[in-house]
Design goal:
The chain is of the alpha/beta class. 40% of the residues lie in helices and 26% in strands.
């Protein structure tokens, strides 16, 4: 399995790379090859003070490369120039990556609730699964919010085709998973006289997912809520504190895919833990 690991070479990204449990989780799901990517902004050009940005970044990248190599990964580094999300997606396509990993952090109490522009733009445009690794700051030190990336998963599904693809991704990372919370939200505005039937159908579908996971000795829990999907998903995440929330991003058109969709984008931006976003027609 091959991943693209996007880094801005900041202290926050160094903290994420140095977290051994996260590296062990990547190994457990079969990752053997890591492509470290950092981007030189397009407006950085020769003639500016310290103009050899590519050389400087490549030198800084060697430290992170060594961490991955010491953990047993095959590593390639890429220093590219341009718009960050376009170049990161471009490298992922070129190397046929199975997943893109991006750190997400806030710079202030307000921005702690909002993902950075690069992560947001990758989420909107990537055709490959995107893992947003949440990074927090404790005093002067950065650390990952949830160290064991795939140990305790919350899978939120609306039973759409894309949600089914997202469940396939849950199955692929099962070797690093001990527990899965299966979640479905019944929007109250859609419930009517058939509410009881809708509840039963949702329970039956979640039970089918549970049976699939339990054959691999993964502990499962089923939760069905009624209400506004975003509010309820975030509330359940707060209650069960998963290390990873998995959600599909639906798109019925190219424009819809670029906009990512209200539910998935707000979950990505406001979840407290890591988020794995599975786009339509991902591998």
């Amino acid at each position: 399995m091959r991943v693209v690991y996007a880094t801005d070479l900041s202290e926050a990204s160094h903290a994420a790379v140095r977290t051994q449990p996260c590296l062990e989780c990547l190994q457990r799901i079969g990752v053997t090859e890591v492509h470290l990517v950092t981007v030189v902004a397009a407006d950085m050009h020769y003639g500016m003070p310290g103009f050899d940005f590519a050389k400087t970044k490549k030198q800084l990248l060697q430290g992170q490369k060594k961490v991955f190599e010491d953990a047993g990964f095959d590593v390639e580094t890429h220093v590219v120039r341009g718009t960050p999300h376009r170049r990161i997606n471009g490298v992922a396509e070129a190397v046929h990556a199975d997943m893109i990993i991006v750190g997400s952090r806030g710079q202030s109490p307000l921005r702690d609730r909002v993902i950075g522009s690069t992560a947001r733009n990758i989420a909107r445009t990537s055709v490959r699964p995107l893992l947003l690794q949440r990074i927090t700051k404790d005093g002067e030190e950065y650390e990952v919010a949830r160290k064991y990336l795939f140990r305790d998963i919350m899978f939120a599904t609306d039973f759409s085709e894309n949600a089914n693809q997202a469940f396939e991704q849950v199955k692929r990372i099962r070797n690093a998973t001990q527990k899965v919370t299966l979640l479905h939200i019944l929007p109250r505005y859609e419930l009517g006289e058939d509410a009881d039937r809708a509840r039963k159908e949702a329970k039956d579908k979640l039970q089918s997912h549970a049976e699939t996971l339990e054959q691999w000795n993964i502990e499962t829990k089923i939760i069905i809520r009624e209400g506004e999907p975003i509010t309820e998903i975030l509330a359940v995440e707060e209650e069960v504190s998963p290390t990873l929330t998995v959600i599909g991003s639906r798109g019925k058109s190219r424009l819809r895919r670029l906009l990512l969709g209200g539910t998935s984008e707000r979950i990505v931006g406001r979840a407290k833990g890591n988020v794995l976003l599975v786009p339509p027609q991902s591998r």
